[in-house]
Amino acid sequence: MKKEVRQLLIERDSDIRTAMERLNKLGRHASHNTLLVVDDDGKLVGSLNDGDIRRAFLRGATMDSTVGEACRANPIVAPMGMPDRSMRQLLELSKIDLLPIVDGETLLVGVKRRGRPREDRKKVPLALIMAGGEGRRLRPLTEKTPKPMLQVGGKPILETIIESLVKAGFGKTIINIRYHGDQITNYFGDGKDFNIEIEYVEEQKPMGTAGSLGLIDRRSVPRSPFLVINGDLLTTLNFKSFRDFHIAAKFDFTLCGRPYKVQIPFGYPVIDGDRVTEFREKPEFTHLVNSGIYCLSPEVIEYVPVNEYFDMPDLIRRVLESKKRVGVFPLAEEFHEIGRPESYSVAEEFYQRHLSEGMKAT
Q: If you write DSSP's letter for every residue of 34-78 in order, what string do you get?
């Protein structure tokens, strides 16, 4: 079996954590890659990509769940000997990126990939970074410095976000500025030194967490789904995977939800009508909460008023009221938000533990 095929194989009893590590090792565009799930005899039983894993999380899977619980069973395959032209047609009609080639016993003998068209420069992946806030909860640290320019890992938080975008294949970012915005523009300039094209949207007054979307120059309005990212967070998330999840699910608005555990400090009766069916002592519940990372389709900008204060929850409500598709992407990667002095004090440890090696590779 060819090396290319062997590196795509994963046993169905492997855990999801291992699968995610394998996908990330396949390259920065791991969301386009697919692992092929095999049984103990090496026979193909399923396929697994990043989107499959996220959907499994929404069903209750964890990092320790098995690949077999998350994969798609009975993937589309091509029999050994199928003409190359027929395999290309099958890839296009099925809208899949990888076609396993098997013999009569579903033993893998090769793979066929779908070629990707060159992306329109006007549709290059783009992210808007919200960096205009005053960071009042972090004073006195932010009295003379905008929060995204606070140092973590020997550089501004904003620089780490930009490096993560570049690593994920993003070619352009628009940075929203207001409070001490000159420090940001002087440091990053047009982005050439950071391998990314940078434009700026400057607020003359506070516009809320979504209001600056209405200030984007018409010539710069994205023509394909784009990210909106708060400028005060650190994460190991592959931003490209998040964008691809949004596109594959055909959502209009997708928010990235991170797990948040809540423990009730009392006994908790589980009831059916007026009958108790179970009693739990100090139960713990996990909910997905907003992480400050979003993916929007271009038409969503039309719901943002021009030059008015407007928050992201207001935008989400408008999109929902318009019967558009709003989805959630479960964040399993490491995440740290820097909003208070205590969270900033541990940000350096988070960076060194989860991000320092990855940034050296960019």
A: -EEEE-TTSBEEEEE-HHHHHHHHHTT--TTSBHHHHSEES---E
Q: Lowest-confidence range among 81-95, 163-177, 259-273?
A: 81-95
**Percent of the chain topping pLDDT 90:** 43
Over the stretch 102-134, which tens digit does the pLDDT of each residue have? 777 667 777 777 665 555 555 678 899 999 888
Please list, in sequence order, all residues whose beta carbon lies within 8 angstroms of the beta carbon of residue 74, skipping any fewer than 6 positions away.
46
- DSSP labels for 304-361? SPTTS---HHHHHHHHHHTT--EEEEE--S-EEE--SHHHHHTHHHHHHHHTHHHHHT
- Cα dist. 273→3, 95, 240, 334 in Å? 59, 47, 46, 40
Average pLDDT on 235-246 reads 92
The stretch 206-222 carries a mean pLDDT of 84
Domains of the chain: 3-113 (3.10.580.10), 121-360 (3.90.550.10)
Strand partners, 37: 10, 46
